[in-house]
Amino acid sequence: MDVPRRDTTPEPDASHGSLPLNDALAAIRSIHAQRPYSRALLASGLLHDEVEWLAAGSPAELPWAGRHVGPDGVKRFFHLLAESTTYEGFDMQHVVADASTVVAIIDAWGFAKATGRTFRGTIVRIYAFRDGKIVKVRNIYDTAAYVAALRAA
């Protein structure tokens, strides 16, 4: 099913610390449009030195789940995710923002490397900004779909 892409236009005077809201939205859109997303994000210069990256789930079932701190922690998250999964699609469907937060809604699908089993779902990625940098990212997604794909039949 094709879901139309819709973007919410922000108020022109809103800002994310020192990063104007329009720039924050543009940066998130740009990062999500690039492949691989992980490399674009890590190279963007937008991650605060103490960024907190939160991924839903139990690390016992989803190796990338949990709390990752700093750009190196974010890099580790992407490494653990890439060791376990291959994304065949990662399409931003919608993005909204307010004065300190950008929310991206992503349709994502792929398969678990160990089992070949597929997953598909919506990822809600909530970016919190302070002083023009991303200080926190919460990743909310259907953990059961990923667990089912990772488990052997």
Structure commentary:
The chain is α+β, with helices and mostly antiparallel strands and 153 residues long. Helix content is 28%, strand content 42%. It is built from four helices and nine strands; from the N terminus they run βββααββαββββα. The strands form two sheets. The protein has a seven-stranded mixed beta sheet with strand order 1-6-7-8-9-4-5. The chain has a two-stranded antiparallel ribbon with strand order 2-3. It is globular. It starts with 5 loop residues before the first strand and ends with a helix.
Summarize the structure.
This protein has helices at residues 21-33, 37-43, 70-84, 143-150; strands at residues 6-7, 15-16, 19-20, 47-55, 66-69, 85-97, 101-112, 118-130, 133-140. With 153 residues, the chain is an alpha+beta fold.
Q: What's the arrangement of secondary structure elements?
A:
Elements: E1 6-7, E2 15-16, E3 19-20, H1 21-33, H2 37-43, E4 47-55, E5 66-69, H3 70-84, E6 85-97, E7 101-112, E8 118-130, E9 133-140, H4 143-150
Parallel strand pairs: 1-6, 4-9
Antiparallel strand pairs: 2-3, 4-5, 6-7, 7-8, 8-9
Question: Using only CA atoms, what is the Rg?
Answer: 15 Å
Return the average pLDDT rounded to an integer. Answer: 86
Can you tell me the residue ranges where pLDDT is under 50 for at least 5 consecutive residues? 1-18
Helicity range of the residues? 25-40%
Number of DSSP helical runs: 4
End-to-end separation in angstroms reads 27 Å
Strand content: 35-45%
How does the helix and strand content classify structurally? alpha+beta
- Give the CA-based shape: globular
* Helix-strand pattern: EEEHHEEHEEEEH
How many strand segments? 9
**Order of strands across the widest beta sheet?**
1-6-7-8-9-4-5
